[in-house]
Every structure is written in structure tokens, then in C-alpha cells.
Amino acid sequence: MKFKFVTAAAVALSGALTLSAGFAQAQEPKSLEELLQFVKQGQVTEAKENAAREQRFAQAKAEQANMLKQAENERARQEQLSTELEATFEENELAVADKQKVLKERLGTLAELFGHLTSTAGDLSSNLENSLTSAQYPNRQEFLDSLIKKMSDSDKLPSIEEIERVWYELQREMVESGKVVTFNAEIAKPNGDKVEQQATRIGLFNVVSEEGKYLQFVPAKGTLEELARQPSGPYQGWAKDLVAATGGEGFQKFGVDPTGPTGGSYLAALINSPNLEERWHQGGYVGYAITAVGVFGFLLAIWRLIVLTGVSAKVSSQLKSDKANTNNPLGRVLKVHEDNPSMDTETLELKLDEQILKETPKLESGLTLLKIISAVAPLMGLLGTVTGMIITFQAITIFGAGDPKAMAGGISGALVTTVLGLLVAIPTVLLHTIVNGRAQRIIHVLNEQSTGIIAEHTEGNRGK
């Protein structure tokens, strides 16, 4: 019976023992009386905690109810404020409409004036953006942009000072377009370096540095940049002379780009055009071969012309002498007659013809080669052109014909060899004609003198 009572008490008080685990762990009961005492104390402690917890719950509920009441009051206040603001907004909207109507009536024709002013300011802003004068006066865009933005708002009007400044900028742009002025500017070199130099602006057409280099204005950066490739010919020299000139030196030559105010497309096309050396390189290996053949033909013709000129001078000297000199063809022909004075006419004639035949190849040396060069050079040029056209059409097949500039550049390069061939053939033909004429003149003298010798020899034999 005692065991059952202890078991029932332990089961009934298990919850209390769990809640008072800290107390039970701190003190372990040594008897059933102490266990009952501990349970009693745990019940008392739990009751106090439950009471405190209930009190806190009640207090929190009261606070929540108070906060809910405050939120409801705030919502009502905000709803009332929203209603008042809506009414105020409607009243203000009607007032603004009335004010705008009054403003429109008072503006009258000024509205059209301000419209023209806005349009003029916009056109001036776009013109000044790409104008060369912006390199010298860089802060005009900000004023015009702010004025246009101000004019776009219906509640703001331009001041008299702003209107006068628009007029002033228009007048200044027109005046500056006819001036040649020098000013200090930061110039960007092709290698990326930036230097402070004096720049000379020629109206709205061109800007050159103090070194005589052409510059370009980059609107996106608002800076002056030296062209990586300068125009060839005398243009840079004229630019240097213009920069160094003073006001009292009169007129100066200068290469002006007429498309300068619209972007300088003519100058760009001029400097991008290949020079003679670049054109020559466009001919490729065929062009190099034609050039080599042409140089060889030219040197051969000059050399033969010099030789024949010397031979001609010796022949002319021989004509004035009564004694044969073997340092020239005519002297060697006459030497045959001097060595055989008693030879019969037929044999002497054959001997003289033989000597003339020996001299002829020496006189006509190189003429055949010059003639061949004059005929082959155009054929080599045609070969290079056909080859270049094949390459160009292959590129068109691969990349398409969307860029006519690239296609025209390929065809232009292909035609360079034809030009080179003609440049070699035409002078070679002329040189061949000159050299051949000089050689035939000497040969004609040999034949003429040989015929005269035969005639004199025949008359002498008849007189005997």
C-alpha cells in the first residue's frame, strides 16, 4: 500500500517536478516528506508565476487596445487631411488654369516670338556644336542648352539679357567666320600627348598649329587634335608661312578646305588619297617587276644612246680625215679599201659589205631588247590588272558588295599595274625610236661611203 501511494504521488507530481526542475536539481529529496515539501513549494512558485504572467497578458492587451484606438484615430485624421488636400488640389488646378489663361492672353504675340527664339537657339546650338569657333569659345553650348530648357517650361520666360546674348552669339559667329585669328589651345598629338600651343583659325574652314600642322576639332571632346596624316604637297609650307606671317605682309597662300564648315570631307578625302609611292606599292609584285623592267630598259636606252653618240662623233671625224682610223666603224670599212687597193671591184664590194655586216650588230645592239620591253610592259600591266580584279571579286563574293568604297579601292589598286605598264612602254618606244634612228644614221653613212668607194675604185680600174 505504501508503494502504490509513492507511485501515484510521483506520477501526479511529475509536472510540478518538471516546472521546478532547477529547484529539484539543486536539492535532491532524502525522504518522502522532503519530496512532498518540495512539491508544495513548487506549486506555490508556479502559482505566483502564473499570476504574474496573467497580469502581463492583461497589461499587454490593454496596451494593444490603446494602440489600436490611436491607429484608428490617426487613420481618421489622415482621411480627413486627404479630403482637405483633394479639395485644395482641385481649387489650385482651377486657379492654375485661370492663371495660364491670363498668361496666354497677356503674352499675345510674344508666344510666337518666344517660339522663334527657341527655334533660333536650337539651330545655333547645333551649328556651334561642330563649328571651329567652339575650339576658341568653348562655353556657349551650356548657355544655349539651359535657355532652350528654360523656354520649354511654360512657367518661365527668358530675360532681356538672355535674348540679347542669343543675338550676340549669332553676330559673333558671323563675324568670326571671316577672321584669321590665333589663340592658345591644348592640342592632342597623334601619339596621345597633349601640348599647349598657339592655333591659327582660318574662318570656319581650317585650324593649323604653330608647327604648320592641320588640326581637326572633335565636338564630342571639345578638343583640337593633330591629323595623323597631313596633306602632301605645298600645303604644310603654306600653313607655316601663314602662322609666321604678320598683319603687314599682305596676302599669304593657304590650302583652304571649302567643306570645312560642314565637316571637312574634302580635306579628309585629300589626305586619304594615296600618294605616288603608295600607288606604286598597290601594284604588288607585278608592279615591282614592271618597274624593274622599265628601269632596265631606260638604263639600256641611255647607255646605247651615249655609245652611239660617241660613235657618231668619231664617224663624223673620220669623214673629215683622209686616213682610215680603226677606232670607228667607218674607219674600219675604209681600212678594207686601203689594205686592198688593187682588188677587183666585185671582190672589194663583197669585202666592204662583209665589214658593214660586222659593224651593224654592234650598232644595233640592245634595240631588239628595247622593242621587246615596250611590247611586254603593257602585257605585264594587263596581267597585274586581271589578277587584282580576280582578288577584288573574290573579296566581294566573301564579304558582299555592301561597301562600294572598298570595292572601288580594290579596282583602283588593280588598275595601277596597267598604268605602270603604259608608263614603261611609252617612254621605251620613244627611246627605241631615238636610239634606232641614231644607229641607222651611222649604218647609212657606212653604206654611203662603201658605195662611194666602189664607184671610185671602178672608175680607177677603167682609167687604167
UniProtKB/TrEMBL annotation:
Membrane topology qualifier: Multi-pass membrane protein
Keywords of this entry: Cell membrane, Coiled coil, Membrane, Protein transport, Signal, Transmembrane, Transmembrane helix, Transport
Principal localisation: membrane
GO CC, alphabetical: plasma membrane
Subcellular location: Cell membrane; Membrane
Source species, domain of life: Bacteria
InterPro entries registered for this protein in UniProt: ExbB/TolQ_transport, MotA/TolQ/ExbB-rel, MotA_ExbB_proton_chnl
Sequence ranges assigned to domain MotA/TolQ/ExbB proton channel in this UniProt record: 327-446
GO biological process, one term: protein import
TM region positions: 285-307, 372-399, 411-431
Residues forming coiled coils: 54-91
Signal peptide residue numbers: 1-26
Any single Pfam family the record assigns to this protein: MotA_ExbB
Family (UniProt): Belongs to the exbB/tolQ family.
Protein name: Energy transducer TonB
